[in-house]
Design a protein that fits this description.
two-stranded antiparallel sheet; mainly alpha
Length: 238
């Protein structure tokens, strides 16, 4: 009997990425992707906060709002290039995290560990930094779901889930393309420069849209690199 050919995991994940981008463009599609939008916002704001900590600053707290936007509040004495990298840390937070999640999903053991680790980090962030009631409730709910999958889902399912979450984080940059090419934004009561506008201001080199292009290209490359390496190392078929 001829053995049934297993689907290629990388192709399935690319299909998931394409469908995600498509859903963002159709009516009500954003509601289907809402939990992943909030998770991407968390990655984004944590990227700002962790970058500030890395450069010796303080990560005070972060806010996540119902419309999917967020704010990271941090302070410290930073050089101009450090401020630019902290701004970039938010933009690159989701694709960098997504890259790591996709790679971790290449083996059942790593997938299992990463699901536990992700839920733990989310819970820690709620305790230490998240200060909006919506953000706390939503992120705790996501942490519980991820923890449930880490304990109850099959090895195949855990590999798919962690890589699917990684893809969602990577392609979230497509959802924020308009933000990448916006110089000023209003989030909650805060009005000011966007992250790309901040990069351009601090570096005094090239306009904000140039840095939007750079971030978009890096995000796309991170997704492709992760899928390529994960496909090479994949130890389980979906």
């Amino acid at each position: 009997m001829e053995e049934k050919k297993q689907p290629n995991p990388a192709k399935l994940l690319l299909l998931a990425a394409a469908l995600t981008i498509l859903l963002w463009q159709i009516p009500y599609g954003q509601y289907v992707l809402y939990p992943f939008t909030i998770l991407a916002t968390w990655f984004h704001e944590m990227g700002h906060g962790m970058s500030a900590l890395f450069f010796g600053g303080q990560f005070s707290y972060l806010e996540i709002f119902k419309n999917g936007s967020g704010l990271a509040h941090y302070n410290g004495q930073f050089e101009h290039w450090e401020k630019a990298l902290i701004a970039a840390g938010g933009l690159l937070g989701p694709p960098m995290a997504g890259n790591l999640l996709i790679l971790a999903g290449s083996t059942p053991r790593l997938s299992h560990i990463t699901l536990f680790l992700l839920s733990t980090v989310i819970i820690i962030s709620v305790l230490l930094w998240i200060r909006t009631a919506f953000g706390m409730g939503m992120m705790l709910a996501l942490a519980v779901v991820i923890l449930f999958l880490a304990t109850k889902a099959s090895a195949h399912m855990q590999c798919f889930v962690i890589q699917f979450l990684g893809v969602q984080a990577c392609v979230s940059s497509s959802n924020q393309l308009s933000y990448l090419f916006t110089n000023h934004v209003a989030v909650g009561s805060h009005k000011g420069l966007s992250d790309t506008g901040k990069i351009a201001e601090e570096l005094s080199f090239m306009p904000y849209w140039f840095w939007g292009i750079v971030i978009a290209i890096i995000s796309f490359l991170l997704l492709l690199i992760a899928l390529k390496w994960a496909n090479r190392k994949q130890k389980v078929s979906y």
